[in-house]
Specification:
Number of helices: 5
Strand content: under 5%
Helix content: 55-70%
Mean pLDDT: 90
Low-confidence stretches: none
CATH topology: 434 Repressor (Amino-terminal Domain)
Radius of gyration: 10 Å
Largest sheet: none
Number of domains: 1
Distance between the termini: 22 Å
Shape: globular
Length: 63
């Protein structure tokens, strides 16, 4: 059940829950901060795959 609710939350909600700012998440995932801002309002399951595979482990706390 945890995995279903995790994917339906927005990147911003998950980012805030872990205590990351946009620039901190960008630095941790080696993405530009403008790209993180663009996908901030997307649900995690709707983020395109190359980005999702970089962001998801950080937001789950595995990195």
């Amino acid at each position: 059940m945890f995995f279903i609710t995790f994917g339906s939350k927005t990147v911003k909600e998950l980012r805030k829950k872990k205590g990351f700012t946009v620039s901190e998440l960008a630095r941790e995932t080696r993405l530009s901060s403008s790209l993180v801002k663009k996908i901030d309002h997307f649900e995690l399951k709707k983020v395109p795959e190359p980005l999702k595979s970089r962001i998801e482990p950080v937001l789950r706390g595995r990195r």
